[in-house]
Design brief:
Layout (H helix, E strand, L loop, with lengths): L7 H18 L11 H13 L12 H24 L2 E3 L5 E6 L5 E6 L5 E8 L28 H9 L1 H9 L1
Helix pairs in contact: 1-2, 1-3, 2-3
The structure holds zinc ion.
Length: about 170
């Protein structure tokens, strides 16, 4: 089947379906147990906003692979929303970071782009027991838990900030 032989309606339906298939395969979405009209609407909107969708090489089927492109655009938007929603955190030296939590006290620290998104991964903290999940895109072990700007340990800065009394002392120091 060739994309150019389809009617607009057929093309639309097949691409949305392929996008949802791919998203289920990636565990981004579960239509069987939790169909979400908002997700469908987001895909419809992306479909309307992106008239020249190109296939992302994946299965070899031009229709499925174009649906993959739609799914990847959807995932990118969700990632942007997620990163934007994370509040800025300030080291004592004033450098701003975003902290991503991975459970068990594991977190990673990113510098921030002007748009409020993650920029560079600069450090991580491991949980108290040293067990925890790691970000999937973490390709090397980052155990350097200190601010690249001032060298203060992220953990001790966080602990001090969490203690109202020492925070107060710090403020008037
Ligand atoms: Zn610092």
């Amino acid at each position: 089947m060739n994309l150019s032989e389809l009617t607009e309606k057929q093309r639309h339906d097949l691409l949305i379906e392929a996008a949802l298939d791919y998203m289920e395969h990636q565990d981004w979405y579960c239509s069987e147990y939790d169909p979400d009209p908002e997700v469908i609407e987001q895909l419809e909107q992306l479909y309307r906003d992106t008239p020249s969708l190109q296939p992302t090489p994946c299965s070899g089927s031009p229709i499925f692979d174009t649906g993959v492109t739609l799914a990847l655009l959807w995932e990118r938007d969700r990632r942007i929303e997620y990163e934007e929603a994370i509040p800025l955190w300030r080291c004592d030296c004033g450098t701003e970071y975003k902290r991503e939590h991975w459970g068990h006290g594991n977190e990673t620290f990113y510098t921030v782009t002007p748009d409020g998104l993650f920029d560079e991964l600069v450090g991580s903290l491991k949980g108290k027991r040293g067990i925890g999940t790691s970000p999937r895109d973490l390709k090397w072990p980052v155990n350097n838990g200190s601010c690249p700007n001032c060298g203060r340990s992220f953990r001790s800065t966080l602990e001090r900030q969490a203690d109202p009394q020492t925070s107060l002392l710090f403020q008037f120091a």
